[in-house]
Amino acid sequence: MRQAFITDQFDSGNINVNSINGEHISLSIRKDNASDFYQWFHFRLEGHIGTHYQLSIDNCADAAYPGGWEAYHVCASYDRDNWFRIPSRYNSDTGQLMFTVELEQSGIYIAYFAPYSYERHLDLLAWAEADTRVTNEHLGQTLDGRAMQVLRISETPEPDHIVWMIARQHPGETMAEWFVEGFLDNLLDEDNPLATKLLQTTAFYVVPNMNPDGSVRGNLRTNAAGANLNREWLTPSTESSPEVFLVRNKMLETGGQIFLDIHGDEALPYNFVAGSEGTPNFSDKMSAQQEVFKAAFKAVSPDFQTKYGYPISKPGEADLRIATNWLGNEFKTLSFTLEMPFKDNADLPNPMSGWSPERSAKLGADILYPVTKTLDFIAHEN
Length: 382
Known about the structure:
It contains nine helices and 17 strands. The chain has helices at residues 118-129, 175-187, 193-199, 212-217, 242-254, 284-300, 323-331, 357-366, 368-381, and strands spanning 5-7, 16-21, 24-28, 42-46, 52-57, 74-77, 84-86, 88-91, 96-102, 107-111, 134-141, 147-153, 161-167, 202-207, 258-265, 272-274, 334-341. The chain starts with a strand and ends with a helix.
């Protein structure tokens, strides 16, 4: 019988093979280039149909967020389109994540979360550009030579409001780009009256993938230089963080009323937002905007909640290197990091798929309502 085969030689692939002994396979996750971060994995297993392969990822204890392995189940797909969960068990004593794969076909893809490929990213941009309300502006290039682009979406050259959405500063958080895909699909739906009305007064600036180099390289958290982009917003540079440097300059040019940074969280099994409390310029006005946004989001989506989330920074102690904090402080307006789970939404669990690309996209579509309500509130404030 031919030995099982493991490969990660494709877009966003990441795994090291320690050993293959019959049906027992020992693996480890490769670190981000020029960085000690790691947690993202993505590989293909080839073997014999009907065989039960016992896999273990052996270096999980020293990953970026060891708490992310508790109650986590790996993602898998035979066709790279339909993703499901394989029951997994984390042994905190040995640092191993263990799971069994019974092959129904000769090969299966396994990942930390359903990947969002660079090819799909390019397809998303091309699809959006076909709409006459969309322009795709080239801002510059990454260290690996990939284009940094921002989509401007509006029906008016002189909008009353500007909304920014960026996603995937951390490349392994692929749910963020699935979210953007759902958001764009809803925003550009010509049969959606809410979107049609909104685009008559508002310009959206959308960067679906802030970190294309790290995405292709199979990194969890960093770019080609090993920089964590979400710690670069105070003093970005063309040498280490051109992605932030270019997008930040465009934001300074346009300004805005709402800034949204889309992410995924390894440990918390909930959807939530984190604001810019703790920044020097945070005000009662900004706090009121936050409450309007959160109430509207809860009203439209049962997948969103406000009970669980990150601790709020004390006044004056927020880290201004983080996008949400820098943006809120700079523009003195609503700025949120939105987090989705790698695991599942504990409030509405789905044992078959966990939190999924489809749920991420639906949440992205639903955010149009809280954006609308918040812009209405800001307009009446002024």
